[in-house]
């Protein structure tokens, strides 16, 4: 399995709720730079948090890649989602090549858990950072972090 984990691009600091914060112009540029690393990858699904900034990030990647399938929106990719639940959902999907679009602290904790098997070493994903992991199964400690791209 190959798993790409993308943190949303830079977002406006304020909105009515955290979930409603949109991307900034700089955030959109960051996302497009990160999307370039996904060109030619055999993605089967783009799965995103329902938060506005993650939806905008996923849509930008979707369009940049000319991805045929619609973005899947799921409630288990919000900032405070449970890492073990996310891993379970990934297992249930049964897909081999997946892009997740979400937020900190979830993305750092998820990458750290998949790589190290515990939550004590979260990955340092800044806005629009893209992590690529691979392994036989999306299980804690059984995936290898192959690349971590940061967008300035």
UniProtKB/TrEMBL annotation:
Gene Ontology MF term list: protein histidine phosphatase activity
Name of a matching Pfam family: His_Phos_1
Parts of the chain that traverse the membrane: none
Family annotation (Gene3D superfamilies): Phosphoglycerate mutase-like
Entry GO terms, CC: cytoplasm
Family matches, as NCBIfam families: sixA
Protein name per Swiss-Prot or TrEMBL: Phosphohistidine phosphatase SixA
Organism encoding this protein: Pseudomonas entomophila
Classification lineage: Bacteria, Pseudomonadati, Pseudomonadota, Gammaproteobacteria, Pseudomonadales
Gene (UniProt): sixA
């Amino acid at each position: 399995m190959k798993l790409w984990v993308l943190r949303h691009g830079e977002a406006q600091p304020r909105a009515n709720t955290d979930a409603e914060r949109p991307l900034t112009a700089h955030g959109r540029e960051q996302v497009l730079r990160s999307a370039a690393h996904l060109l030619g990858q055999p993605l089967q699904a783009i799965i995103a948090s329902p938060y506005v900034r993650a939806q905008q990030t996923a849509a930008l990647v979707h369009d940049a890649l000319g991805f045929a399938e619609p973005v899947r929106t799921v409630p288990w990719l919000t900032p405070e989602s449970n890492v073990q639940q996310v891993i379970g959902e990934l297992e249930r999907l049964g897909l081999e090549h997946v892009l997740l679009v979400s937020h900190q602290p979830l993305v750092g904790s998820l990458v750290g858990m998949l790589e190290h098997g515990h939550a004590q070493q979260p990955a340092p994903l800044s806005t629009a950072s893209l992590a690529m992991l691979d392994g036989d199964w999306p299980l804690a400690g059984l995936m290898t972090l192959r690349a971590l791209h940061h967008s300035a």
